[in-house]
Every structure is written in C-alpha cells, then in structure tokens.
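Q: Got a minute? One more chain.
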Amino acid sequence: LEAVVDGKQLEIGNSKFMNQQGYFYQRVADIGTAVHVAVDGEYAGYILITDVVRKEAGRLLKWLKKQQIEAVMITGDNERVAEDVARQLKLDYVYAGLMPEEKVEQVREFMESHMEDEKLAFVGDGINDAPVLGRADIGIAMGAMGSDAAIEAADVVLMDDDPMQIAKAIKISRKCIGIVKQNIVFSLIIKFGCLALTAFGLANMWAAIFADVGVMIIAVLNAIRALKYKE
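A: Always. Here it is, folded:
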C-alpha cells in the first residue's frame, strides 16, 4: 500500500512487499502479523497485529468435544499465528495461509471424506469466507461484525459475536428436530390406530375427527415448545 499523508510518502506492507521495494527492514521474531512502514523512502518500523483468543471460544470447543463434534481451523493467516491460536485452543488440526479458493477446495475435500449422514458446518465473518459459507452444508456467519457478503452467503446468521451462540443454535436445532419427530410418530400412531379400529367396526365419526383435527391441535401445541429455550 502506498499513500501520501500530510505531504509524506508512506509505503505499508508485509515483508514480501518490503523486499520488492528494496528496503532493509527489521525481522520480526514475535508471533503475529507484522505490517512494515516506510516513510519518505526510509524504513520507519513495523506494527505487530496479534489475535486475542476469547474465553468463549475455548468454552465452545470444549462443548463441541463433549458432543463428539470435530473442530478444524481453516484460516488465511500465516502458519505461526494460526498454530499459536490452535495451541491456545487445543485444536488438533489447523490449515493456515489459505486463499479463499483454497479454503473452498479444503472444505470440498472434507465433505467428500465424510460419511453421508455427516454434515459440515463452516463459521466465518469476512468477505473471504463467503465462498466457503456457500459451499459448506451449513454456513454460519457471525453477523454483528461480519461482512455483507458473508451474511448473504450464510445459511445461519448469528447477530452476536459470542462464539457460544453456535452451541445455542445447535441445541435449538436439535430441540426442533426432536419435536418434529415426536409429532410425526404421534400422528402416525393415532391415524393407524384409528384405521385399525375402523376396520373392526370399533371407531365412529368422533374418532375420525380426533385423528384429524385433534392430532393437528396437539401437534401445534407441542411445536410451541420450540419457542421456549432454556440454557
């Protein structure tokens, strides 16, 4: 990046950019993303950007492990930064330095290697994550800080940047699926029971009404439970 600020020529970039411009710059030993700065043709220093791991992320990963859900980090950050974050979060697998198209290819490989009944979910918030969010079985965008492209491509948008909201979304979805299965099983039992009674001449019009309208009302009341969720 080159720009003129207050009459001074600024050149900002990574180590590769500094090499291309022919600057003798300071090597960075600390873990993080170094942004080097040159002012009026002279190297001025660097800015070190590091990721701060949130406590909620660690809690989420512990919960996922208890649920036997495997978590993998896919990032465009350099390997040193990614491995440091993975170490703090105790992640077993990390893929770093990936471009957007490489992320899509990696996700495609994951999906092809999984069993048919397994689903792959991808969580992201940046514009570079949009292609992967659209490719994954379930794309989850962190909406509060997410880009418009990521939100548009995602299947689920969390309007809170708390990672534990992902666990909450999983719990709610499981509860909803459980209620759907309950309604299906209950409806089939009642209707087949009514058919059997009718075949033996033991059912009347009221039984038929209950099997139709009554079952529908009970199913609706049972579905209302999905509106209430307890942590």
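A: Helices lie at 15-21, 55-66, 79-89, 100-113, 130-135, 148-153, 164-199, 205-223.
Q: Perfect, thanks.
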